[in-house]
Amino acid sequence: MKNEKKQSIDLETAQSLILKKCRVLSAEKVNLSKSLKRFPAALLVALESLPGYDQSLRDGYAISREQQGGKNCYEIIDEVAAGDTRKLLLGENQAIRIMTGGLIPENALAVVPRELCSVNGETVSVKTVFLEPQRDFIHRKGCELAEGEVIVPEGSAIEVEQLILLAGVGYDSVPLVRKPRISFFCTGSELISGGEEKLAGEKYSANSHLLHGLIEHAGAKVQVQGTVKDDPEAVMEALIAMNESGSDIIVSTGGMGPGKFDLVEDAFLRAGGRVIYHSLHLRPGKSTLFGMLGRSLFFGMPGPPPAVHLLFNELIRPAILALQGAKNCRPREVEAYLTENLYFPKRGLPRLKSGFLSFAEGRCLVRPSTTIGGSNCYIYCSESARELKSGERVTVHMIDSLPCID
Ligand SMILES: Nc1nc2c(c(=O)[nH]1)N[C@H]1C(S)=C(S)[C@@H](COP(=O)(O)OP(=O)(O)OC[C@H]3O[C@@H](n4cnc5c(N)ncnc54)[C@H](O)[C@@H]3O)O[C@H]1N2
Ligand code: MOO
Q: Which cofactors must be present for this protein to function (predicted)?
């Protein structure tokens, strides 16, 4: 049992050390419907141009180029609904009735929206305002996407716009990086599950639910989960079992403080783990260990749930993204104006305080979050400051920010 003062490293160095250990996982074929916000395992390009044919943008009339007599009158010779695959041609002074999305005759001049037409029997006349069409209401083949064009840039997740394009060019399934498999356990002899009878000194485990939710929300899979007593043997066995289950990441909570005599670190070393760092220059989250157990990344986190939430956002979520080949995995930083004073009891460590970012009158505002209010960011406070004043410009780290390749 050691109790020497641990060398702590700053957050940015910790993030770099973690990201260096992340190798992109293998690929799997996934139905396009399940691909939103996931990362492609190969460059996804347009299989064909989009749209694939000249199509109408309005319900109306496709009119011929040739027009004689200056009467703006056209004979309606046919009707094209969406899905009609006939290749029609227009003769002089001819028109076809066409629906939005319908295939345009190759030699049409334009589509005239029906509200700019008047129909008399089988003749349509066009209001003069449309004689020199500024807009032809034809969505031209290939104007959105050329065949072979890259739809999802490397290192970027599939976003809504890209999903629409992928579907539009005919993808039914796509190769994606498989979801990282994460196993976790909560240590603490005081922990019991919701529904169990509780005695003084016992506590319902919040971290089990918190981690499960955070892992799934971050796009990873929960492989194995458990609760372990403050017993070195039991912690070691949990680590070995989770490693053998093929976990990409193993997480523990609790058992990191001086009172627990390095419970988790000792068990991790006995299980064959290699420590990369074991203390962070940050509060909360100081008592945090990162290492490798075989091919699994291991995060030993402290027990308090707010510290678990913070460390998940700053360290584990970036690893989940990096394992899927994402670029720019760190939480996005934003500058915002503080709307309340923020005090810290003492100097010494940089802090990240949970906050809520909002927008008003063109400015980014941030306030500290309350116990029962939600948070969407962390407010950064340097180690030399004891307070941040209302109105001050501060840096915040966004929670849940997806990498964006601009
Ligand atoms: N003398 C010192 N004491 C402590 C120091 C220190 O520097 N000197 N550091 C403090 C800090 S900071 C932290 S963080 C904790 C770290 O302790 P552990 O990682 O060993 O965490 P535990 O003691 O197991 O738990 C701390 C706290 O969190 C509660 N907890 C734990 N697991 C859960 C869970 N699954 N759900 C809900 N709550 C949980 C636990 O009951 C404790 O209240 O050490 C400080 N002490
Ligand atoms: O390590 Mo503790 O999490 O600073 O709060």
A: Mg(2+)
**Phi first, then psi: what are they for 114, rounded to 5°?**
-60, -25
User: For residue 304, what pLDDT is reported?
Assistant: 95
Instruction: Count CB neighbours of 19 within 10 A.
Output: 16
Please state the domain count of the chain. 4
What CATH number corresponds to the domain at position 228? 3.40.980.10
Domain boundary at 291, 323, 355, which? 323
Domain boundary among 114, 139, 164: 139
339 has a pLDDT exceeding 80: yes
- Which of 231, 287, 349, 351 is the best mutation target for the ligand 1 pocket, counting ligand atoms within 8 Å of the beta carbon and taking the most? 287
Reading the block at residue 307, the tokens are: 């510290």
Mutate to test the pocket of ligand 1, among 8, 209, 253 (most ligand atoms within 8 A of CB): 253
Residue 1 has pLDDT above 50, yes or no: no
**Ligand 1 proximity of 235 Cβ (cutoff 6 Å):** no
Alpha carbons 280 and 52: distance in angstroms, whole number: 55
Distance (angstroms) between ligand 2 centre and the Cα of 379 equals 16
| SS3 (DSSP) at 48 | coil
Whether residue 298 is found in the same domain as residue 229 = yes
Within a domain: 406? no
- Residue-number span of the structural domain to which 82 is assigned: 55-139
Residue type, 283: R
For residue 235, tell me if it sits in a domain.
Answer: yes
Are residues 187 and 167 located together in one domain of the fold? no
Cα gap 128→277, rounded to integer Å: 76
pLDDT confidence tier of residue 404, bands split at 50, 70 and 90: low
Each residue of 85-114: pLDDT tens digit?
999 999 999 999 999 999 999 999 999 999
Where is pLDDT greater, at 262 or 395?
A: 395
Which pLDDT value is given to residue 3? 46
The CATH number covering residue 60 comes to 2.170.190.11
Ligand 2 binding pocket (C-beta < 6 A) is 283-287, 302, 304, 307
Three-point CA angle 90, 94, 95, nearest 5°: 85
- Rounded to an integer, the average pLDDT of 222-226 is 96
Using one digit for the tens of pLDDT, what is the confidence trace for 121-177?
A: 999 998 765 555 678 999 999 999 999 999 999 899 999 999 999 999 999 999 999
| In-domain check, residue 404 | no
